[in-house]
């Protein structure tokens, strides 16, 4: 699985978790706003000019998200990031391992 596919899977899990906790949606369902955000994120990832050499969007020199979507995805990430140890523990551990290796 390439980095774009991993990013899509992570963003999807974050948005589903965020929507469930913040908007009270049922498991496997998204409210209209979160469904729109997910579709937008997938579209942006599909058209990423860096392809498989993509960095995280936060580190990218090209900001391809509109400002309203950028702020909304930041909100989702701020909410889900610290909680991801509970709903995707292996992803959390892998993320912190990569961050630790970068700092060495």
Q: How is this structure best described in words?
A:
- It is a single chain.
- This protein has 104 residues and is an all-alpha fold.
- The chain has one domain.
- It contains 4 helices and no strands.
- The protein has helices at 3-23, 32-46, 67-87, 89-103.
- Helix 1 (3-23) packs antiparallel against helix 2.
- It is globular.
- The model has no long low-confidence stretch (mean pLDDT 84).
Summarize, please.
The chain has about 100 residues and is mainly α. It has one domain.
* Topology pattern, helix = H, strand = E: HHHH
Radius of gyration: 14 Å
- Count the beta strands: 0
Number of helices: 4
Query: What is the general shape?
Result: globular
Number of domains: 1
Report the oligomer: single chain
Low-confidence stretches: none
Give structural attributes.
104 residues; mainly alpha; 69% helix; globular
